[in-house]
């Protein structure tokens, strides 16, 4: 039996993947255009599908970032949702500042929730967020610095494996509790919403929606190229080596703390970008984004798609979220069981994920 | 090369939960020297290498390389000082090819950015190819290290050690799992390497130690039991009692 099934040669499999990826990218890029067709047209793509795909693209960026940390460097973060949420909050702060006097209370500077809570002036950490460039800097800087501090403390003390995962999970949980508090100055459990505009464009137009969709798609392509370059370099091979035998890498003279920190910080920044693109598309950010379950779901996307392969992470994010969107409307009670079952099945029978299945069993 | 540094261990003790793995161990390896270390299982041979390479901190004692105190440095810093190590249980990176394993070990700047920017130059490539030839692995260069046989993994580890271009090589049981011909080849290789570099070889195979033909240190219960030529230690009554006579 096995003699008759010859696996694809690696180079041909890779070529197939590349082509598939390009086709997928073009299909995605066509979606907002097809959305403009009359609803009766057979190729018409619904508003719902476009907006939900825009979200999935952001999830795919998050999956890529997690794959860099987990699939390559072996850092199983169960708190990547926190970096995503922080990027989202930074973008949300910018969007809140842009509302200006158009809030319900009509205050020239203060967002509605601050007026409601009796703030007299803007807290210092809100300064600068009215500038787009500053806000974008914070989108990467805040998750990056958090990852740097946490990673430095953990990696330097040689905390790995389950303990590291627990610490990252505790981090996102602690942030969730903190952001729920009204006195933090981030809108408490309501978070931010009612955004009006971005870069001078009103957000409630179809042009703005396409714009955000394409920005996300470009970010995904950029993130993929960046991660491809990284993982194909000698640095990528050092990460793989650290994943499989960190001690041995140390005896070769590599300071593995530095290498892991670099990957972890970069990964957190990418997750922040994903969150920042996500928030204007869904129109809201609240502390629920820090929920530990979100981070765990992201791990499942990567596991299902195939960790340690960048295409797998993207594939997993789209597949699992597609399934989720379909199931939560078809059979909402089933979703959590399906998600759990999927994870168990993949772990037991498909350790290389869907991508391993696509590449052929021999690969 | 007499300009090299001397390895100096004095009064080194390592205690694990009350058990003395090393007990007041003293040892000097001169620059360019080839030293064999033998001793029964559990004598502390591997622990001695752990102490030198920063894996284990000594409970007491001095460990110097030249005038540098190794007990204050971490594994990576010690490796970059020029101390390379081959582990008793070969540990190579299974997910990388033989060539990539060698490339990872090749002496070059070790930081993340340097690794990102790294491009394989002709010189680096020929150095790797030379080591592949030296270790008989040129046919396997593109194979994943995970599919190598035990003997080939030993060779890959030795090759990776050469790539690091160390001043001092610590080689733990290099010929376990090798054929007689391979064992001879390894002995010749180590003899050739020594002189330019210092080499410490731990090995149970006395034929191999004889083939190396240099000074031998016998460890027992964490300290030096005897030291001298192979003939000297083989005729040492205490050595026969605890090690050879069994
Ligand atoms: N991390 C550790 N914790 C507790 N005991 C240890 C540890 N490492 C080594 N030992 C003990 O120290 C003693 C010396 O071990 P070591 O590995 O140095 O012996 P060895 O001379 O290399 O033996 P072998 O010839 O079997 O490789 C052994 O009894 C071992 O069980
Ligand atoms: Mg040993």
TrEMBL record, chain A:
It is found in: Cell membrane. InterPro entries: ABC_transp_permease, ABC_transptr_urea_perm_UrtC, LivM-like. It is a multi-pass membrane protein. The keyword Secreted does not apply. One of its GO terms (cellular component) is plasma membrane. It holds the Pfam family BPD_transp_2. Its main location: membrane. This is Urea ABC transporter permease subunit UrtC. It comes from Falsiroseomonas algicola. The lineage of its organism: Bacteria, Pseudomonadati, Pseudomonadota, Alphaproteobacteria, Acetobacterales. The gene is urtC.
TrEMBL record, chain B:
One of its GO terms (molecular function) is ATP hydrolysis activity. Residues 7-246 form the ABC transporter domain. Pfam families: ABC_tran (PF00005). The keyword Plastid does not apply. It comes from the Bacteria. Keywords: ATP-binding, Nucleotide-binding, Transport. SUPFAM superfamilies: P-loop containing nucleoside triphosphate hydrolases. NCBIfam families: urea_trans_UrtD. This is Urea ABC transporter ATP-binding protein UrtD. The gene is urtD.
């Amino acid at each position: 039996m096995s003699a008759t099934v010859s696996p694809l040669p690696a180079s041909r499999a890779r070529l197939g993947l590349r082509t598939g990826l390009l086709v997928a990218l073009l299909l995605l890029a066509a979606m907002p255009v097809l959305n403009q067709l009359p609803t009766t047209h057979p190729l018409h793509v619904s508003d719902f599908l476009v907006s939900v795909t825009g979200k999935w693209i952001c999830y795919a960026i998050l999956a890529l970032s997690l794959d860099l940390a987990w699939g390559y460097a072996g850092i199983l973060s169960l708190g990547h949702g926190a970096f995503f949420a922080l990027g989202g909050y930074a973008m949300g702060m910018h969007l809140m500042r842009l509302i200006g006097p158009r809030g319900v209370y009509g205050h020239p500077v203060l967002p509605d929730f601050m007026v409601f809570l009796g703030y007299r002036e803007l807290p210092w950490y809100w300064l600068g967020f009215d500038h787009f460039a500053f806000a974008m800097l914070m989108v990467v800087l805040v998750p990056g610095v958090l990852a740097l501090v946490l990673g430095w403390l953990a990696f330097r003390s040689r905390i790995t494996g389950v303990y590291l995962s627990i610490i990252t999970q505790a981090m996102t949980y602690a942030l969730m509790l903190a952001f729920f508090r009204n006195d933090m100055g981030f809108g408490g459990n309501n978070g931010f919403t009612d955004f009006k505009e971005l870069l001078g464009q009103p957000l409630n137009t179809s042009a703005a929606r396409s714009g955000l969709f394409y920005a996300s798609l470009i970010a995904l392509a950029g993130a993929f190229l960046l991660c491809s370059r990284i993982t194909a370099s000698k640095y990528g091979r050092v990460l793989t080596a650290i994943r499989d035998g960190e001690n041995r890498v140390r005896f070769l003279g590599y300071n593995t703390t530095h290498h892991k920190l670099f990957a972890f910080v970069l990964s957190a920044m990418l997750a922040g970008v994903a969150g920042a693109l996500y928030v204007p598309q869904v129109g809201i950010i609240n502390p629920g984004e820090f929920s530990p379950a979100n981070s765990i779901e992201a791990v499942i996307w990567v596991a299902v798609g195939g960790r340690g392969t960048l295409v797998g992470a993207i594939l997993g994010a789209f597949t699992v979220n597609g399934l989720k969107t379909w199931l939560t409307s078809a059979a909402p009670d089933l979703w959590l069981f399906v998600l759990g079952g999927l994870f168990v099945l993949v772990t037991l029978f498909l350790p290389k994920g869907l991508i391993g299945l696509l590449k052929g069993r021999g690969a | 090369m007499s300009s090299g540094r001397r390895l100096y261990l004095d009064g080194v003790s390592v205690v694990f939960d009350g058990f003395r793995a090393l007990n007041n161990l003293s040892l000097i390896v001169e620059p360019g020297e080839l030293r064999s270390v033998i001793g029964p299982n559990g004598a502390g041979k591997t622990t001695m290498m752990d102490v030198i390479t920063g894996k284990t901190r000594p409970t007491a004692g001095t460990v110097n390389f030249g005038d540098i105190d190794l007990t204050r440095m971490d594994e990576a810093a010690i490796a970059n000082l020029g101390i390379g190590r081959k582990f008793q249980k070969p540990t190579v990176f299974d997910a990388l090819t033989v060539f990539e394993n060698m490339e990872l070990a090749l002496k070059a700047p070790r930081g993340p950015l340097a690794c990102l920017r790294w491009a394989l130059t002709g010189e680096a490539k020929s150095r790797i190819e030379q080591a592949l030839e030296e270790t008989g692995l040129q046919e396997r260069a593109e194979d994943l290290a995970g599919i190598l046989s035990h003997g080939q993994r030993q060779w890959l580890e030795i090759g990776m050690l050469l790539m690091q271009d160390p001043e001092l090589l610590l080689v733990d049981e290099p010929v376990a799992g090798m054929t007689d011909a391979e064992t001879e080849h390894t002995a010749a290789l180590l003899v050739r390497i020594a002189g330019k570099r210092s080499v410490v070889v731990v090995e149970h195979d006395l034929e191999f130690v004889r083939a190396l033909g240099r000074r031998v240190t016998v460890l027992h219960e964490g300290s030096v039991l005897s030291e001298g030529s192979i003939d000297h230690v083989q005729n040492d009554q205490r050595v026969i009692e605890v090690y050879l006579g069994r």
